[in-house]
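Teaching note: in complex prediction, the entire set of molecules is handled at once rather than each chain in isolation. The prompt given to students was simply: 'Predict the structure of this complex.' The entities are:
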Amino acid sequence: MRLLFPEKTALQKWVRHWALPGLLCATLALFQPRLEQSMVLHMGVEIPLLFILGWLTANAGGPVLVKKLAPWNMAGVPGLTFAILVISLWMVPAALDYAVLSAPVAIAKVASLLTAGMAAGLSWKPAGFIVQAFFTMNAFWMTFVVGLLYREAPQQLCSVYLEDEQARAGAAIMAWAILALLLWAPGVLRKLRD
Amino acid sequence: MKTTGLRSVIAFAIIVVLGLAAFSAVTAGFAAVTSDGVRRVQLERNPRVLPDLPLIDARGTMFSLRDYGGASNRVTFITLVYLQCQSVCRTSIAGQSWMQHAIQARGLKDRVRLLTLSFDPANDSPQVMAEHARRMGVDADLWRFATVPDTGDLNRMLALFDIIVLPDGLGGYSHNAGLFLIDEFGQLARAYDVDRPDLALADYLARAKGKGE
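The expected output is the structure of the full assembly:
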């Protein structure tokens, strides 16, 4: 059990380091043209990492930010709703096309995903177990099913990406859904154990 | 606590409204999820006027896309291709070939015609297009191949049809496709799937019938 649920580890400290989001963001920016050349890298790497980056920023910001947001973010519901809406928006194939073809939409994409990650990170603790479970399960099913649809779609979904990339992009989306569920599961088990 | 609840409800409402607005914006009002679908809806709602785009056909004749832009009792189905293409253009051209047979078989020659536009003027010269048309058994009164003589006009042509062409790194291109209709008013008014020319023709015939022809 100890091994499965470590307390404050070196990894956690590292993940909460204030410099990490900035470094990651710079790295992502460096690889942006390469990442958006392929549907798999765009949907499977860039978009999830932007969201995670936002979450890490929230972690680095810590309780101060949570407190500032608290009056507008009861039980984390507005924040998590925002996060889930942003994630689902960028899974719409037409939105992805706009993001590649139009600079303002591309900026909106990056900004909204970072903000969504932050909102989710800042809302997670205040949300409590039940609200967390509600949003996690909804996000999981939504993402998983979207991934399935991408895998199975008979028509070309995006104008800017090839049809044969869709199956792999779909698989990547499904993998993220499962990964998120797996990351969440230890917390649930711990809760049930206590 | 009370103000926190109220503020949170307001924040929640604003977020939901913004979310719906964003979804509506990218899906043409919840009508489509792919760019091709969005284009289809946009064309139906706002048909496009054909610009004065210089073209050259397989016979070497110069003409303008606007020649198709006037009111006429003949409608035109258009696809965009490049002739070296081994994938989706084959579907596009096969669709038009099917249409040619259907038009001939049903005696629709005075009502429907076909136009295939190449976006690869460097390779698809009038001679190449003529050779291709000959191999396809093209009826020249019915089906015309053309391209832009000036590569500077290429982007205007692609933008009109919302076709995105990306070099695939192997000397070819990857691109989205569409089967477009120029209606009786000379407007770019509809887009269909390239692999369902039957539905496109049926839609035209059904609407023509509805207008009392």
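Point out the following to students. The beta strands of chain B are 48-49, 54-57, 62-64, 75-81, 112-118, 143-147, 165-167, 173-175, 179-182, 187-192. The radius of gyration of chain B is 21 Å.
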